[in-house]
Write a structure and sequence with these properties.
heterodimer, A: alpha/beta, 7 strands, B: alpha+beta, seven-stranded antiparallel β-sheet, two-stranded antiparallel ribbon, 2 helices
């Protein structure tokens, strides 16, 4: 089971990204790896929201995806125990090829990975962080203590909503992000449109 | 538009379960608030809840963020409640910004209640007549997550925006 942690600040477009990612990976698993996962779910999503009401889990479920909700807390801190329990249950009962964990908009994905690394040995885990190009300058200034650590451990960064900024603003956003995390692969996207599937292939 | 006197909270975390069932405003006269302070001290983070069962708003805190949830069944069609939600979300966003707050996100789910369809057929070889019947109410669930604003201010903003759906 490969775990993909999807992080990024509130409103960055995580759920839109997860929708495309899950659909693509489901198709990949259906075709190339169907023998290996026959009879089981190909992709399972854990949806974590800090509010007591889940919104995004219903959006994902309405698209036919298999979703497990964790609400009223954050899996990188207050609900870390529930995350480990849920992930263990999913692995034992479903054992999907891909498990996508959509974190809350205030979670620190690197902390989630550390929680999982403590609980599971040799867990194959990749962090994909989403940023909102349109609000980047404002949010990264006002909430730097939240935004910066969200990106610092990412393996892949998607700069989303590039349709909302011009070329100069995008360059400024990318430069700012690179200063926080220069190691991650970084791609501009607009998640309301089809994303280049080569990006999803990096997660396989 | 009018609102149904319904309120249902149910959330579980760290094995601590709260279940606030149906709340009848016609028979319940005194005001009371529920304050749940959960110190998830094993990780050093706090996540607190504050419910006022008379305004259908619950407020919780997670580190620097404030999370407000408004839940109400509203006596109006699905499309009517959807339009209402869109308009009120804009009002709430403007008010938060005017107070100097930073919007994380404002999201809502509108669930149709009672939508149905009558189907009629009177002969072979002819089409089935379909008559959609819109439901009389829809459930609105509104989630507002913000930073840099006081919880009381956020509650008042939502109360003001949804005023006619809060009074019993």
């Amino acid at each position: 089971m490969k775990v993909i942690l999807v992080g990024g600040f509130l409103g960055s477009g995580k759920t839109s990204v997860v929708l495309q990612m899950a659909r693509y990976l489901t198709g990949v698993a259906d075709t190339a790896d169907s023998a290996a996962v026959s009879g089981t779910a190909k992709v399972v999503i854990i949806e974590n929201e800090i509010g007591e009401v889940g919104i995004d889990d219903r959006v994902l479920e309405a698209s036919g995806l298999q979703v497990q909700g964790l609400f009223s807390g954050c899996v990188c801190c207050t609900l870390s125990g529930e995350l480990v329990t849920t992930l263990r249950q999913i692995k034992e009962t479903i054992n999907p090829k891909y498990l996508i964990m959509e974190a809350t908009g205030v979670a620190y994905p690197q902390t989630i990975r550390e929680v999982l690394d403590e609980a599971f040995t040799n867990l194959d885990c990749t962090i994909c962080c989403i940023t909102d190009a349109g609000r980047w300058q404002r949010l990264s200034t006002a909430l730097e203590n939240v935004i910066r650590p969200q990106l610092s451990g990412a393996d892949l960064i998607l700069i989303n909503k590039i349709d909302l900024v011009d070329a100069a603003a995008f360059t400024a956003v990318e430069t700012s992000i690179r200063a926080i995390n220069g190691q991650a692969a970084c791609f501009p996207v607009s998640a309301l449109k089809p994303v280049d599937t080569a990006i999803w292939d990096r997660l396989r | 538009m009018s609102a149904e006197p319904e309120h249902d909270h149910h959330h579980t975390h760290d094995g601590h379960e709260h279940n606030h069932g149906y709340h009848d405003h016609d028979t319940h006269e005194h005001s009371h608030e529920h304050h749940h302070d959960h110190d998830h001290s094993d990780h050093g983070h706090s996540h607190e809840h504050d419910h006022d069962e008379h305004d259908f708003i619950s407020i919780s805190h997670h580190e620097e963020s404030i999370i407000a949830v408004f839940r109400r069944s509203i006596t109006e069609s699905y499309s009517g409640v959807t339009e209402l939600a869109e308009a009120r979300m804009r009002v709430i966003a403007e008010a938060i910004t005017a107070k100097g707050g930073i919007i994380g996100h404002i999201k809502a789910i509108v669930t149709a209640e009672g939508d149905r369809c009558m189907l009629s057929l009177t002969d072979a070889g002819v089409g089935v007549q379909k008559r959609p019947l819109a439901g009389e109410s829809a459930n609105l669930e509104l989630v507002v997550i913000v930073f840099c604003i006081e919880a009381d201010d956020l509650r008042e903003i939502i109360r003001s925006a949804m005023a006619e759906y809060i009074q019993p």
